[in-house]
Amino acid sequence: MKSARRRIDVNLDELDQVLDGARQAPLSEADYDKLKGALHALAAMLVRPRNTEKTSAVLEKPEGAETGAGTQPDTNPPPPPGHGRHGAEAFGGAQKVDIAHQNLKHGDRCPECGKGNVYGQKEPKVLVRIVGQAPLAATVYSLERLRCGACGQVFTAPEPEGVGPEKYDETAAAMIAQLKYGSGTPFHRLEKLEALLGIPLPAATQWEIVEEAAALIQPVRDELIRQAAQGEVVHNDDTSMKVLKLEREPGDQRTGVFTSGIVSTGQGQKIALYFTGRQHAGENIGEVLKQRTKELSPLIQMCDALSRNVPKLPAGVEILLANCLAHGRRQFVEVAANFPEECRYVLERLGEVYRYDAEAREGGLTAEERLQLHQQHSQPVMEKLHSWLEAQFTERKTEPNSGLGKAITYLLRHWKALTTFLREAGAPLDNNICERALNICERALKRAVLHRKNALFYRTLHGAEVGDLFMTLIHTCQLCGANSLDYLTQLQRHASKLAAKPAEWMPWNYRQTLERAGV
Questions:
Q1: pLDDT in tens, 182-191
Q2: SS3 375
Q3: What's the sign of the alpha-carbon dihedral 233, 239, 242, 248?
Q4: Spatial separation of the C-alpha atoms in residues 146 and 363, rounded to whole Å
Q5: Which of 210, 215, 291, 492 is the 20 to 30 Å CA partner of 426?
Q6: Which residues form the domain of 392?
Q7: Cβ contacts of residue 193 below 8 Å, gap of 6+?
Q8: CA separation (Å) from 350 to 64, 345, 346, 358, 434?
Q9: Pairing mode, strands 243-245 and 458-460
Q10: pTM over 0.85
Q11: Dist CA 349 CA 343 (whole Å)
Q12: 514 lies in a domain?
């Protein structure tokens, strides 16, 4: 590893004097250090920080790897993603309005030529119009009152149909929760925004609204935990969190507070769970697995190699531990600048394995077919990599205490868990599942990190529990492709029904439940 440069304080006047003096005589050692330090600092500032861990970005291309030296350019490269307009079908949450022709209907005589008849087209012309509005809007109803001059009786106009008894309806609670726990907008920031738009909405009132809503929909979160325990693959990780008022048990030596993210997949569904408190991710997943049916086969747990991520299992429950290969790869990415050739070898071998996994995903292979593909193609690659890693130490090619040596030690120490995908059907390579470049567990934690960056902390553990509930529901909706705002609204409107049968009010089936009820 390169040693850190010694700090040298210097200003532009001193640098000018150094350069002027260099014209008259050779540089002194002190002046040389000043000039060299300034140049290195400038060079470091000009280098753009790397925002990707792709091998091509981490390492320079080897000599002879340019186009024409054994490779052919792609004559039909795919178009870059993210360009082009959204079609009308992309606006799933928009209000749909069907407009019939004012003068013509299907089968009428053509007014242009008078010879043929007009017939309805399969695809209508579509117009998309987007309007701005406040996150929460208000309507003030002025009900006329009449008073009898003789008896004093007051008569008030009836409320309009559809106006509920509560000042804040279900959509208000859903929108506040969506902004706070889904988008990271603090209560005080939403209060200021609504005040600018003429709608007073104090932060304390916002909290009371979401707290009341959380109590109504708690049974759904409990059901999600129960179903998550029955999953086939479970991902878990945690991040630090701050709770201002947290009472600890006597003798508790822990000082940290964490938010654990757990993502369970199985039977085509994904469930995201959040837990905030003194417990680590492994302890939280252990609590979840207490609800797992004992007759089920062992689930696969995907996590990084930290011991705190592994649960102490209840009796009768088994897991197959799989460590995140991306974490092992990252060890080499971080030292690639100092050991380019060795890291290139490792990254390219792991790149082959990821390409085989991409082939399995794009080909729609079953879990068993994917396992066979990896055993046929990836296993020889990993065996060759394992031999190379061991040879670095046995043949004394790498110092164990160097950055490269520590990266190699990490892979060798956790090799069995890192290669679970070669032995168990359905075991992922890492926390990237289902969607390319979507790190599902870390993406789940990013919602908690977003809240931490914007709101900074939870005031109490109860407030953290409310936040965990809404983040669980919102992110599970995102994973299932459901509209979280509509989902939270419908849960509140049918609170008594979901309390009786919460399994019928999951993000992936609540619309069918509403259709059966004729809503």
A1: 888 899 999 9
A2: helix
A3: positive
A4: 74
A5: 291
A6: 325-414
A7: 134, 135
A8: 22, 9, 6, 12, 19
A9: parallel
A10: no
A11: 10
A12: no
